[in-house]
Specification:
binds zinc ion; 4-stranded mixed β-sheet; 27 helices
Length: 677
C-alpha cells in the first residue's frame, strides 16, 4: 500500500540486515571520527567521499545477508540486537494476557516457532484460495477484492486515508495506483539484461508459488505467464516514479459520481460499502490508472484475473508461511538487493513486530535506551539550525522580501518531533496468540486497516507519528509541516551527546537541515505553513527557483555509477535540494558554536574540516551492484557518494576548508555553484 507523501532521509534499509563480525569499528567511538577509514592518497578536492571513506570502502565486506553496508546499517544492526533483547525478555516473562509485553513477546515468539509454521504448510491460504476459485464473474471478483481489502489485504486497488493536500486539517480517502509486482512500470518494457532477469524472476516466483499451493507444473507455468502479461497491461496505466513526485497532478478530488463515471467497470458503491468507506468525495491520485483498471477488469478473461489475484494473495503472504514459500520470495527479492543469503529469522521477526506493533515495542525501547540528555541536546541542535536557516533565508540574494517573509513564517511554524510520540497509539483490538503466527499477522493487518478507515472524513490528528521510535531514519511531512527524528537515529554515528560539535553538526546537524530543507524543496515549497498546497511565492521568485532547480537536475544527471548508469536528476531533485541546503544550514549553525569559532585541531583536523569529515562518515556505504541498479530507477535519493560530493562541491566553505582549486575534479566555478537555500 502506498503511503501519504512523506520525505524520508534514506530509503536504504531492507529488513533483516546483519553480521556482527565484519565491521565492529573499534576506535571510532573514541574520537568520533574514523581516521583509519580515510584514503589520504586521494585529494579531498578530487573525490571527497573517497578521501574520507576510501580505505574503509576497500576493506569493508558486505555481509552475505545484506544489500549494502555502512553507517546506517551498523546502527540498524545494533538496534535490531537491542530490540531482540526486549522481545526475548517479553516472551519469556510472566505477563498478563493482553498487556503490551504479551502482545509484542508472543507475536515475536509465534514467528520464531518455525516448527509449527513448517507443519502447517500452505494450509492458512486455503480459505481465501477457495473464495477466489468460486468467483464466477467480474462483479464477484471486484466484490472479493473489496472484502480482502477490508481485512487489510491490498490487491489491485490502492487506498489510504491521509490529510487533504488542500485542507490539511481534514482527512480524505485517496485512491492510488497498485497491481504491480515489479518496482515500477518500466520494468515491464525495458530490454536490458538486468530488467529481463527481473521479469524472469517474477515468472519463476509465480511458478513456485502456484506449485507450492497445489497446482501442477504445467498449469503453474501457464498461470505465471498470464500474471506477467496482465501486469504488463496494468503497467501501461501507471505513472512513473518521477511523475508520482508532482503533488499537483496527483491531486484529483472528485465526487463518487465522477469516480463511477471514470471507471464504470468497478461498482464503487458496492466496493466502498464493503470497505466501510463513508465519503462523498475522494482524491483519485492517478485517474488514468482507475480508468485503465476498469477497462482491463472487463476486457480480460475472468480466469486470468483470478490467476492474478491468487498470485498476489499467495506471494504477499508467503513470508508468513513455510520455508519453501519464504525461499521463493527471497529468490525474487535478491534480484533487486543482491543479497547472497536470506537474513536470520530473528531479524525478520524483530522487523515485523516493529512494523506491526511499533508503538508498543517503541514504548519498551525508549524506556530502556532513550534518555532526556539526548532529547535536550537535540532540542538545542534543532533550535540552532532553525536560527541558522532563518539567517540564510534573510540573506538570499535571489529572493524578494515578500517571499522571504512567507518562507520564514513557514520555517518558524515547523512542528518538531524528537524521540517518541507524546501519546501512544492503542492496539486494543489486536489479538496475539503465541501459537498462531499467521492469524497474529492477520489481526495486525486488520487493526491497521481499521485505524486507517476510522479516519475518513475526520480531523487530522497531527500528533501522530509516521515512523516507530526505534527507526534509524527521519522525515519531513509537508501536510503537517513537521520534522521528525525517531529515537533510533539519535545515536552514534549520527549523534552522540559526548561528541564535539563539529561531528554532531556534520552528522545529525546535516540530517536536521536536510529535513528542514524538504519544507522548501521542489515538492515541499508547494505547501504553506499550515500544510496546504497553496502557492505562497511571487511569480518572479517562483520562476527563479524553477531555474535554479533545473540546473541541479542537469548536474546530478551527469553523475554515473556502475557501467555508466546515470543518476536521475529529476527523480532525485527534492533529495538533492535537501542535501545541499542541509549541509549549508548545519554548517552555519556549527559556526555559531564555540568550536565553530575555534581553530583547535583534533586528530590533525581543524574544526571546519572535522565538520565535513563527520558529514562524509555518516554517508559511507558500500552497496551491491543489484541494489544500486534498482535504487537508481526507484529511489529518490542519490547514491551515497553523490550525497556527499554533490553538496560539498556546491558549498564555498568546503573549498576553503580543504583548499580546493580549479585543478581538482570536484571544482565548480563559484558562479555555477547551486545556491538555492
Ligand atoms: Zn530526504
Amino acid at each position: 500500500m502506498k503511503n501519504k507523501l512523506i520525505l524520508i532521509l534514506a530509503s536504504v534499509l531492507i529488513i533483516g540486515q546483519s553480521c556482527k563480525n565484519t565491521s565492529k569499528e573499534t576506535g571510532v567511538q573514541k574520537s568520533y571520527f574514523d581516521v583509519s577509514g580515510m584514503d589520504t592518497s586521494i585529494s579531498p578536492g578530487d573525490n571527497f567521499y573517497e578521501y574520507v571513506n576510501g580505505t574503509w570502502l576497500k576493506g569493508a565486506k558486505i555481509p552475505d545477508d545484506q544489500s549494502a553496508w555502512g553507517s546506517f546499517y551498523t546502527l540498524y544492526e545494533e538496534n535490531l540486537s537491542k530490540l531482540r533483547g526486549i522481545l526475548e525478555e517479553s516472551a519469556s516473562a510472566k505477563v498478563e494476557k493482553g498487556s503490551l509485553e504479551q502482545k509484542v513477546g508472543d507475536y515475536y515468539a509465534s514467528g520464531m516457532d518455525t516448527l509449527t509454521i513448517e507443519k502447517i504448510g500452505a494450509e492458512p491460504l486455503k480459505p481465501v484460495l477457495e473464495q477466489i476459485n468460486a468467483v464466477k464473474n467480474h462483479n464477484e471478483l471486484v466484490k472479493l477484492i473489496a472484502e480482502l481489502y477490508a481485512r487489510g489485504e491490498a490487491y489491485e486497488i490502492g487506498f489510504y486515508v491521509g490529510a487533504d493536500d488542500k485542507n490539511s486539517n481534514q482527512n480524505i480517502a485517496v485512491l492510488y495506483q497498485n497491481g504491480l509486482s515489479l518496482p515500477e512500470k518500466d520494468y515491464y518494457t525495458r530490454k536490458d539484461s538486468a530488467t529481463e532477469a527481473a521479469r524472469n524472476a517474477l515468472v519463476q516466483n509465480a511458478i513456485t508459488m502456484f506449485t507450492l499451493s497445489g497446482e501442477n507444473e504445467e498449469a503453474a507455468k501457464r498461470y505465471a505467464q498470464q500474471v506477467l502479461a496482465l501486469e504488463t497491461e496494468i503497467a501501461k496505466h501507471h505513472r512513473s516514479p518521477v511523475e508520482l513526485r508532482n503533488p499537483q497532478t496527483n491531486y484529483n478530488k472528485m465526487s463518487m459520481a465522477q469516480l463511477q463515471k471514470l471507471s464504470p467497470g468497478i461498482d464503487w458503491k458496492l466496493v466502498f460499502d464493503i470497505m466501510k468507506v463513508k465519503t462523498d468525495s475522494i482524491n483519485v491520485a492517478q485517474p488514468a490508472y482507475y480508468e485503465g483498471l476498469s477497462k482491463l477488469l472487463v476486457s480480460k478473461p475472468i480466469d486470468v484475473w483470478k490467476t492474478k489475484l491468487k498470485y498476489d494473495y499467495i506471494s504477499s503472504n508467503a513470508n508468513l508461511l513455510s520455508k519453501a514459500f519464504r525461499d521463493a520470495n527471497f529468490e525474487f527479492d535478491r534480484i533487486f538487493s543482491g543479497q547472497k543469503s536470506d537474513s536470520k529469522r530473528w531479524k525478520k521477526m524483530v522487523g515485523r513486530v516493529d512494523r506491526g506493533l511499533g508503538e508498543l515495542l517503541g514504548q519498551l525501547y525508549v524506556k530502556k535506551y532513550f534518555n532526556d540528555t539526548a532529547k535536550k541536546r537535540m532540542d538545542e541542535l534543532v533550535k540552532n539550525l532553525q536560527v541558522a536557516f532563518e539567517k540564510r533565508i534573510s540573506a538570499l540574494a535571489w529572493m524578494s522580501t515578500e517571499t522571504k517573509t512567507k518562507a520564514i513564517t513557514k520555517l518558524n511554524t515547523f512542528t518538531k518531533k524528537i524521540g517518541y510520540p507524546e501519546k501512544w497509539k492503542s492496539y486494543d483490538d489486536v489479538a496475539i496468540d503465541r501459537n498462531n503466527f499467521f492469524e497474529n499477522a492477520m489481526s495486525v493487518r486488520a487493526h491497521d486497516y481499521k485505524e486507517m478507515i476510522d479516519k475518513v472524513g475526520k480531523p487530522v490528528d497531527k500528533s501522530e507519528w509516521g515512523m516507530s521510535p526505534p527507526t534509524v531514519n527521519a522525515y519531513y511531512n509537508p501536510s503537517y509541516n513537521e520534522i521528525v527524528f525517531p529515537a533510533g537515529i539519535l545515536q552514534f554515528p549520527f549523534f552522540d551527546a559526548n561528541a564535539d560539535d563539529a561531528i554532531n553538526y556534520g552528522a545529525i546537524g546535516m540530517v536536521i537541515g536536510h529535513e528542514m530543507t524538504h519544507g522548501f524543496d521542489d515538492q515541499g515549497s508547494q505547501y504553506d505553513e499550515k500544510g496546504n498546497m497553496v502557492n505562497w511565492w511571487t511569480k518572479e521568485d517562483g520562476e527563479k527557483f524553477k531555474e535554479k532547480t533545473t540546473g541541479l537536475v542537469d548536474l546530478y544527471n551527469s553523475y554515473t555509477i556502475l557501467d555508466g548508469l546515470h543518476v536521475k536528476g529529476d527523480l532525485t531533485l527534492g533529495e538533492n535540494i535537501a542535501d545541499i541546503g542541509g549541509l549549508a544550514i548545519a554548517y552555519d549553525a556549527f559556526k555559531m558554536t564555540k568550536q565553530g569559532q575555534d581553530t583547535i585541531k583534533i586528530d590533525g583536523f581543524t574544526p571546519d574540516q572535522r565538520f565535513f569529515l563527520g558529514y562524509a562518515q555518516v554517508w559511507r556505504m558500500k552497496s551491491r551492484d543489484e541494489s544500486l541498479r534498482s535504487r537508481i530507477t526507484t529511489d529518490p535519493h542519490s547514491p551515497e557518494m553523490f550525497r556527499v560530493n554533490g553538496p560539498a562541491s556546491n558549498f564555498d566553505p568546503f573549498y576553503a576548508a580543504f583548499n580546493v582549486k580549479e585543478s581538482h575534479k570536484m571544482y565548480i566555478a563559484p558562479e555555477k555553484r547551486a545556491k538555492i537555500w
